[in-house]
């Protein structure tokens, strides 16, 4: 390992590898057929064996290498000392040079937001391409870097296709592992939740005169669809999403020039002592963010305070 790389690049390089190992674990659990589904209470708020095992793996691996990181995860599992911490470092990440603003960051300044399995409801229903593993990095309350691993990418493309992919990014450096198809002008495809909908979510969507509304699981998945040009905005007028759902997606969107904010257009904060829910909802775009924000109806603004 190149110890001359900045801390943020080393943390990212390790996280890319850790996310890869996590993806193998998720695929193993899926093929075992024993998902171990637990209802955490509320609307489609599920947990499986994959959520807990992956969170343990990510937490133990990161902390063994970088003990001073602040790691916050959805499942809040106790550290598992048996998790194999030797995932290594991704060379493609280490070979980049750090943007100057982050070159002097120290471990203790980085807050890591982990969603071990985003799109759990869809995972249990076999909608496998909606599932992602999210590792996001925040500094001074801002999402600056992240990894999105899609463990079942290509699962319908035949047995020759390589299963799974990793997208990673850092603000000021860019994001890697994605492909954009430029959408036709004038189109407005909105993408939103399929398992956490309600009247307010639907009111917001219908106020935006969409060309079409797509309903898919996962915050990571929906952000990727926006980045790659399959949808024009991810719109979720509900407080159900948490910081670990949005940190990595927001950082990667920002790294490619996009935005992810609440429905008021205000930045989401990721400080280590912040409350978990994104009470102001979520809107993400690759471009023309303010155009979408301006279409949010007053009732939604009133009900979703930042
Ligand atoms: N009402 C809710 N209760 C629990 N989790 C929610 C709720 N709404 C959204 N989420 C979380 O936000 C993410 C994005 O929501 P959606 O997939 O519905 O668009 C989901 O993957 C889910 O995380 P997770 O699947 O990790 O539990
Ligand atoms: Mg999630």
From TrEMBL:
It catalyses: adenosine 3',5'-bisphosphate + H2O = AMP + phosphate; adenosine 2',5'-bisphosphate + H2O = AMP + phosphate; 1D-myo-inositol 1,3,4-trisphosphate + H2O = 1D-myo-inositol 3,4-bisphosphate + phosphate; 3'-phosphoadenylyl sulfate + H2O = adenosine 5'-phosphosulfate + phosphate. One of its GO terms (biological process) is phosphatidylinositol phosphate biosynthetic process. Its EC number is 3.1.3.57, 3.1.3.7. Mg(2+) binds at residues 74, 115, 117-118, 245. CDD domains: IPPase. InterPro entries: CysQ/Inositol_MonoPase, Inositol_monoP_metal-BS, Inositol_monophosphatase-like, Inositol_monophosphatase_CS. It holds the Pfam family Inositol_P. GO terms for molecular function: 3'(2'),5'-bisphosphate nucleotidase activity; inositol-1,4-bisphosphate 1-phosphatase activity; metal ion binding. The keyword Magnesium applies. Its cofactor is Mg(2+). PROSITE patterns: IMP_1, IMP_2. It is an enzyme of class 3 (hydrolase). Keywords: Hydrolase, Lithium, Magnesium, Metal-binding. It comes from the Eukaryota. Belongs to the inositol monophosphatase superfamily. This is 3'(2'),5'-bisphosphate nucleotidase 1. It comes from Ciona intestinalis. The lineage of its organism: Eukaryota, Metazoa, Chordata, Tunicata, Ascidiacea.
